[in-house]
Amino acid sequence: MAVETQAIKKPLGFTAAVIGAFGALFGVFVGAANGSVLGGIVAGFVIMAAVAAGAMSVDRKMEAPVKWGFVILMVLAGFVLGGLPGAVVGAIFGYIFGLLIYWVGMGRYRVPLPPYLTAGQVLWHYAFRTICGAIFVFLITPILVVMPLSFNAENFFTFTPEMLRFDPEGYSLRHYREFFQSSDWQQALRNSLIIAPLATLLSVSFGTLAAIGLSSEHVPFRRAIMAVLISPMIVPLIISAAGMYFFYSRIGLQGTLAGVVLAHAALGIPFVIITVTATLVGFDRSLTRAAANMGANPVTTFFRVQMPLILPGVISGGLFAFITSFDEVVVVLFVGSAKQQTLPWQMFTGLREQISPVILAVATILVVISIGLLATVEVLRRRSERLRGMSPG
Amino acid sequence: MTDTAATTATPEDTGPMLAADGTPLKRSLARALRAQKMRALALIAPLLIFVLLTFIAPIVDMLFRSVENQIVSDTLPRTTLALKDWDDSTGDLPGDDIFFAAYQDIFLAAEAKTHTRLGTRLNYEFTGVSSLFRKSGRGLDDIGEVYQDAFKDLDKDWDKGAPWVELMGSDDFVAEAQAWEKGDALPEFELRDGMADLLPLTAVAYEDFARFQRVEEEKSLLKEEPWTLVHTMLFRDLQAQDVSGYSGPRAEMLKAADALVDGGELPPLDVRTTFEKIDKDWMDVDVWETIKMYSPNYTNGYFLNAVDMQKTPDGPAWRDDDERIYGLLFKRTMFMSLVITFSCIALAYPVAFLLSNLPARTANLLMILVLLPFWTSLLVRTSAWKVMLQQQGVINDVLVWIGLVDDANRLVMINNQLGTIIAMTHILLPFMILPMYSVMSTIPQTYVRAAKSLGATNWTAFWRVYFPQSVPGIGAGSILVFILSIGYYITPEIVGGTTGTFISNRIAYHISSSLNWGLAAALGTILLAVVLILYWAYDKIVGIDNVKLGG
């Protein structure tokens, strides 16, 4: 049985000093905004140390009232200093510091850790998590910033004062309206929705067959074939695009829908091959033999026995191929002509010439689509693992 | 049923073991194996052919284009042949025969409008050639006009299509040409017997003219007066040949012209002076050297260009320092890819470590934060960085708001190397985290605990026990990120400005703007070689089969 670590109330001086240090850190920004960094540090330290000391001195049962009181206080202070945005920042700040004071003061931070850790180890543990948290923020912030900006009422690529004041005037759906009304964007959307499914269909049908062939026991030149089939994923896109541009203009496919579809299908194939062969690794071959034994012909065996079992892999390979084509811009820029402009192409030219925040609206729509696809793939992966008995549940 | 094989092979029977149908078991098994192989290949074949046609063929085409140089010998066949015997080391201009050959070639090229293409091609190697060819295409008509006018003054028929056809064409062709009606396919020109010996140069020029009229213009020869080139050639032929023996159609007309030429009243043919008059640059030995140097069908010129060298008569040589750009670009691409790879390692290691040590539920939740950017469109992420890094963008606004940066001195984080590095580190980070995570989650935590219980400090336990086991993950992720980043195009193009661009941006520029496809292909080939070497290393370390896609 694991040893329980008890939360032990810390000495008052320790709590006041730690919370004061956090206050000083926050004070740097407030101070800088108001002209004096040093003043901010000192004031932040003193105020927060005092608040912490006060909170620790009252009875433990007073925890909730103290926390909420502090939140209200901070909201008021924020509102006086910076209006509505200030109040929101104050509320967040008050809530976090309320939690922090009791978390530190009551020694609750020790609870999830083994009791034998030294103070240095505990400090490192939380410092490490803070670093990781910062990296996660780095990973996710760009996507989170795009979404609210797409509701900007102005033609700016940044938050306007109205938006920061949470003024409804600052927000609008005009960029979405523009996206749905502009014939250029609609044409691009239509092109994307024609090209991606066609390319996916090609790569999935060829790819699944080949993956089944590749996973049988005796395949001559297996490594060489695999290398050729995976190569579209390895060769840098610009080189594929250059080669396809040269070659497709020789044979008259450059600037045609067929050319773009073929090119995208080629790019999607490695993903189908990789996912489907991975699914087939866990496929029990005795099932097909059993089906054959009971009189099913190879086609029936394939569609009634093998296909249902590898379907999750096929679908997620197809989704990979779809997203590859749907997001692809380099190859379509070279192989396609103005008639085959896809969404990414339109976004790319928009970004280069910096025309309008409609791009952000499109970006938000695309993020929503990718969340949907991500969820689908995840569900399929779990289902596939469950079917093959690789993971419980 | 298969155990019949056992029963048929009695102990006394020393022959081979037989299968049910009586064939030896060995052969029967071999046949089954072969059938299995064929079935596997038949399943793979459609895709393999598809990939070979849609992907491998374009790559091979690109490799071919990086050395292909047929345009010079195609456009200037006679000149390149004549230049073979010209010794360029003496510094003397080529002889009159080469100028004469160039006159014929450029005249034909100008009619077919291919001379400007050749000019553009040679302009990559020697600046100024493009305008030289353009001017010459227009100017060379003048040489023949003197003779055309003289012949015309002698007999109007020399300036008409039909008399020429009767003179040059075979009787069959004349009949076919007269029978031709608009809409039919044009008859193929056929030279009169003996004409090639009688008027050799004229015959060649007229045949070229006839082919051009039939294929390009689709007009009847009877209606078209020949080019001035044909008249010039007739003049040359009449100077050298004796036509008194000719008795075919239009013999009188030809003999009259011969008399005119022999009379010596016409100005002598001086192609060299005309070239000089068109542009003095034709008297520059370097121009001729360039043409001679690039007359072979295959050239290493593009590759030399791609590594900042150039062809000279004395072999490859470095370009001047201020003209060297590709070495710088390759070095910059390598350097920035390395920086991106290292920043990805630095950011991915803690995250992968945390994810692999957390309970599965929490790890799966946090994994979404890694997979979401991985799944989000590349352009969405690039546009997000453009929005955030701009001088009037979100990061600068926040920094100004909290007072860390003065409003007048906003940070320049975009359109330079910093912008490219930040954005690409973010975009490629999931490719580093995922392989690291898959390696780290296989490392048993008990090892570190054992090390600690044996007295190792935290640092020693990590550095001597945990870290060495995680190195394969770092290697796999690093090669993947490095391969991906050296070929990146979109992100550097949008956030890189001029100093943060990669070699791929230069390739794109040569394909779509400067139209120097050969150089683009050579740069692409070098980049491809680098990537393939890295890919080979990746295969050795990780194995292609182990490529994992987003968990």
UniProtKB/TrEMBL annotation, chain A:
GO cellular component assignments: plasma membrane
Pfam families xref list: BPD_transp_1
Topology in the lipid bilayer: Multi-pass membrane protein
Keyword Electron transport: no
Keywords on record: Cell inner membrane, Cell membrane, Membrane, Transmembrane, Transmembrane helix, Transport
Gene3D superfamilies, per database record: MetI-like (1.10.3720.10)
InterPro entries named in the record: MetI-like (IPR000515), MetI-like_sf (IPR035906)
Subcellular location as annotated: Cell inner membrane; Cell membrane
Domain ABC transmembrane type-1: 189-377
Stretches that traverse the bilayer: 12-32, 38-58, 65-81, 87-105, 126-151, 193-212, 224-248, 260-283, 309-335, 355-380
Family: Belongs to the binding-protein-dependent transport system permease family.
Name recorded for this polypeptide: ABC transporter permease
Organism of origin: Sagittula salina
Classification lineage: Bacteria, Pseudomonadati, Pseudomonadota, Alphaproteobacteria, Rhodobacterales
UniProtKB/TrEMBL annotation, chain B:
Chief place of localization: membrane
Any single GO BP term: transmembrane transport
Membrane topology label: Multi-pass membrane protein
Pfam family, one: BPD_transp_1
Keywords associated with the record: Cell membrane, Membrane, Transmembrane, Transmembrane helix, Transport
Low complexity: compositionally biased ranges: 1-10
InterPro entries registered for this protein in UniProt: MetI-like, MetI-like_sf
Domain ABC transmembrane type-1: 330-538
Transmembrane helix among keywords: yes
The UniProt record lists the keyword Transmembrane helix: yes
Compartments in which it is found: Cell membrane
Region spans: Disordered: 1-20
Domain of life: Bacteria
Annotated TM spans: 40-60, 334-356, 362-380, 418-437, 471-490, 515-538
A single GO cellular-component term on record: plasma membrane
Stated family: Belongs to the binding-protein-dependent transport system permease family. CysTW subfamily.
Protein name: ABC transporter permease
Source organism: Sagittula salina
